[in-house]
Amino acid sequence: MQSPILDVRPLGFPWETPNPFLFCVHHRDTYPAGNERLGPAASLAGRNLGEDFTLKDGWRMYHGKVVPGFPQHPHRGFETVTIVRQGYIDHADSLGAAARFGAGDVQWLTAGGGIVHSEMFPLLDREQPNTLELFQIWLNLPSEDKLTSPHFMLWSHDIPRVTAVDGDGRKAEITVVAGSLDQRRAPAPPPRSWASRADTDVAIWSIRLEPHAAWTLPRAHHPAVARQLYFFQGNDLRIGGETLASHASIRLDPGAEVPIVAGATGCDLLLLQGRPIAEPVVQYGPFVMNTRAEIERAFADYQRTRFGGWPWPADDPVHPRDQGRFARHVDGRVEKR
């Protein structure tokens, strides 16, 4: 029988992604207790504040100087999908939208023609450590939708979670952020997303297997998709008849079922899948377009308009400590969780 595995590579940083995806990172920071400003109650001495990407004492400040995270920065031409496994993110943007999300929430943001946003990591617990774990995934937009209107979206408890039980009673849980599994479909993606098209078969699944659990990844619905599986947590994994003893990025045959068996510690996987966008990709920093001229236009537009300006009093706004999970949309509608 032909192996469903087409290629195996070590996980790098960021993770290699197939078209139509552009970028994927997995962040896990074991932040200490928080201080009165929602930053770490610990010394920041020895850190390159503003560019702190070194995992010192188990955590990083990234571009933050008081609260860890990413103060205001622009995007154009693609979408960000942020899956928060632990901890919280405070969002603010140039459209006036805002949110605090976490505990399994997913934010899907269409940058489209241009948006400025901040993503800060408030350390809410003043007594206990504040672990943050998330994926951020960039999904490309086709040329006809590169300059679509920006769209802000937050998903929470309505994300399907499919539980499969093997013959020995061991479980696999699959969180369906995009796509469908076992007749359970994720909420509709933003209206101009590549994932909103019926023939693109975009899937984003977070998969957790209990120790020694067995589960079979079904075939893709569309034969022409790119399919990548990331093994990022657990000691070992048996997949398609092969054993992997280290974390890896695995390119799979979309037309094959793929049997997966977790090792003694269980495992966590991420699946990214979709039909490639058959267009050139030109990326420069936060802008992803089809030509160099379009990149230059993006910079010029941002310098001229700031994509609507920044309606917040600071570049790194955070919400009050006692603010629960919420989303305030551009139209003023507020959702609370």
Automatic annotation (TrEMBL):
Pfam families: Pirin (PF02678), Pirin_C (PF05726). Residues 313-337 are annotated as: Disordered. Residues 205-308 form the Pirin C-terminal domain. It comes from the Bacteria. Residues 53-139 form the Pirin N-terminal domain. Residues 316-337 have a biased composition (Basic and acidic residues). PANTHER family: PIRIN (PTHR13903:SF8), PIRIN-RELATED (PTHR13903). Belongs to the pirin family. This is Pirin family protein. It comes from Pendulispora albinea.
